[in-house]
Amino acid sequence: MRIKHLIITRFNIQISRTREASPSEEWMHERLRLFATYCLPSVVAQTKRDFTWLLLLDEQTAEPLMQELQEMIAEHPFIRIRKTAATNDLTALYKQIAAEEKGNAGWLLTTRLDNDDCISFDFVECLRAGAEKAIENLQEEASDKTAERKCVFSYPTGCQLFEKTEVMLQLLQPNNHFISLLEPADGDARTVLDFDHREVEKMPTTLLRQEDIMWGEVVHGGNVLNGFTPHTPTKVVHVEKLPFPVDFNNYNNYRRNRRARVTMYLAYRWRSVKNLAKRIFGRK
Known about the structure:
By secondary structure, the chain is of the alpha/beta class.
């Protein structure tokens, strides 16, 4: 196999070194709902399925919750649950995943996907075409030992779905959290999870399908402040290649809920001020 493609979802593993406890069962129940409503349908409907989808779960996850997730994915053998222990060395974990999953492939392509978001039905097909082309270019440059033999792929255009207010707006964000990384499978492969997607401009990056909406970020009660983007264009969109209810494409919802968006914006700004104060004064 020339390329081994992994979509990786950190379902409930501890990714923060300061967090002492795993997510609550209440949090998990809500994430399972979002996963079943948006994330899972979008991946199952991919026009090209030559990939493996890894769901990384804390090994301490309650058995009933684990069973519920297993039942959701039982009919899809390309989806696998990988149980992981809590660790402060995430890089080691990602390197282990790369080493164990690459098989005989010469190149490893990894895509990050949160369990409450979704991707366009042709996301993988277009990505693989871009990766094949990139490999040709990287192989031509192989004689240059100083050349970076890695490439990041980004679909810069997506949308935000506000569940509570039933508003869906277009969003332009090249350094989004739906990026993919192509790297040689041998050696020091670490997967896309090993670097901050907000620093994507520091690596060679290819923008794909720049005009098309290729991903959807669901803004809900559990991430309403993190997900809200104050610079979101006020363009209401209709997206047929994402698993969103048709009712969410209603422009009247946006006009009717303008007050809600102003409230979210003010809450976002207040949170930004508090985070700035923490960085300046070192408070927790």
